[in-house]
Structures are given as C-alpha cells and as structure tokens.
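Sequence design from tokenized structure. All designs in this work follow the same two-part layout: the structure record, then the generated sequence. An example of the structure record is given first.
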C-alpha cells in the first residue's frame, strides 16, 4: 500500500474519533465514553497504525544518544516543575482518585490514548515527505491538539473577542505547544 494512502487512513481514523466528540455521541454515552470507549478506540487506532506502518519506518540512529539525553532532561524538568507546583498548590485539590483502583482506572483512561497518539505522531511524521516535514509536523500537531480540546465549550470560547483571545492564550496555545513536544 502506498504511503499517502496509509497516512490518509490514519488521519481519517483520528478525524473519526474527533467527530464522535463533535457530534455529541460521546456526551450521550457519558462517563462510559471516557472510561471505556475512548481508550478502546485509541487502542484500535494505535493498532491500525502499528499494522500499517510496521515495515515502513526506518529509524534514524544518527542522533539517538542526543535525543535520548534531551528527552530525559526535559522530562525531568517537566516533572520537577509539575511537583513543585503540586506542592505549592496542594495535590489534595485534584479530581483524581488516589486509591489503587483509582490509579489503575486513571492509567486506563489516559495511557492508551497517550501511547496511541504518540505512535500516530511518530508514524505520520516519519512517513511524510522529508522536503515538507516541518509543515507536516505542525499539521499533525494541530490535528492532535484538536483531539485534546473540550469541544463542548467552543461556543463560549468564540462568544466575543476577549474570550476568544483568552481561549487562544490559555487553552489552545499551551495545548498546541505541548502537542509539539
């Protein structure tokens, strides 16, 4: 199968997951969507990505040590900042359950989605045209940013220019920058 067809299939599956949320189907399903259907859906999309691109991706080992070092340093900085702010604001003020069952439930809710999205990003960027890789990386990050946003608040985000600017500065840009990382 050609690379462009595989990329199109994968982008279509991601857009289909976004359509589930935009059309309100996820809202009708309630918490079952967030806790069961969404992780299973992203596991399915991740499996399709793995099956489609398993033989196509040739990793570049030239900068492997440098990339691993930078990822390790930035991850440690992220966790340090996260925990410093957690201690400053208090970890008890978060909505997550701290029991073993709650931790496993939260892992099931977030981990498959995160892993599948990172697989998709990896496969799409590595199988895009090397000439326009920056453009494709930005478009892929934009697509994955849209899957992170709360679709149901869009009408309040664009009600006037002030709330739209707040949305862009407080929600969209931070999510987009994190998606670029």
């Amino acid at each position: 199968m050609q690379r462009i067809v595989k990329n199109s299939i994968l982008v279509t599956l991601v857009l289909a997951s976004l359509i589930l949320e935009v059309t309100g189907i996820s809202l009708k399903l309630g918490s079952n969507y967030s806790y069961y259907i969404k992780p299973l859906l992203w596991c399915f999309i991740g499996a399709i990505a793995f099956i489609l691109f398993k033989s196509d991706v040739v990793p570049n080992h030239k900068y492997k040590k440098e990339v691993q070092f930078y990822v390790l340093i930035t991850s440690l900085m992220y966790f340090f900042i996260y925990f410093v702010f957690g201690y400053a604001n208090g970890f008890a003020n978060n909505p997550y359950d701290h029991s073993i069952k709650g931790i496993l439930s939260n892992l099931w809710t977030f981990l498959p989605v995160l892993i599948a999205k990172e697989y998709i990003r990896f496969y799409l960027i590595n199988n895009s045209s090397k000439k326009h890789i920056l453009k494709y990386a930005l478009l892929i990050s934009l697509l994955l940013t849209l899957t992170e946003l709360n679709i149901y608040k869009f009408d309040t985000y664009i009600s006037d220019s002030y709330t739209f600017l707040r949305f862009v500065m407080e929600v969209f840009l931070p999510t987009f920058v994190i998606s670029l990382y």
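The first helix runs from residue 3 to 22. We note this feature because it recurs in several other targets discussed in the main text.
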